[in-house]
Amino acid sequence: MNNRLIWNNINKTSKIGFVFTIIMTLMTAVSAFVNLAQIQLPLAINLPWYIATILGFAKALAVIAFISNRFPTLREWAYAGLFFELIAGAACHILSGAPIWHAIPALFDLSIVAVSYFYWHKKKYQLQGLDNSERS
Fold first, then answer.
1. DSSP state, residue 134
2. 135 in a structural domain
């Protein structure tokens, strides 16, 4: 079947959610690799190496949860884990005495996670017939 035909048959909510979920999953996968490979970034706040390893492993598990659609509860936990990790990351940058703009990447990533989560739930409610916002 033609891929363009499949894409044209998907509604706007699903397209937006799909794009943001792909961005979020790629962002999380890259972040997991950086944490697991112990790569030091310019804005790093020099946490102990084992914290980065734990975060990298948790992010890798979150990527698996986002890729597989079989376990919605696991995916919900992955969203919650990313939310807390990004909030904590922004707080660490702010509370470490670094300039406030060092927290902006974590807050930007948090906004992508929030949009993906919102559209995932919106799609889930539309499939259940609970959302009347797109019916005319």
1. T
2. no
The answer for 97, left when phi > 0, alpha when psi is -120 to 50, beta otherwise, is left
d(CA 116, CA 13) in angstroms, rounded, equals 11
Question: Helices H, strands E: what count in the chain?
Answer: 5, 0
Domain hosting residue 83, numbered range: 3-128
pLDDT digits (tens, 9 = 90+) for 10-28: 677 778 888 999 999 999 9
Q: What is the DSSP letter of 70?
A: S
Q: What is the pLDDT of residue 135?
A: 47
Nearest in space to 78 (alpha carbons), one of 91, 64, 62, 93: 62
Number of structural domains (the chain) is 1
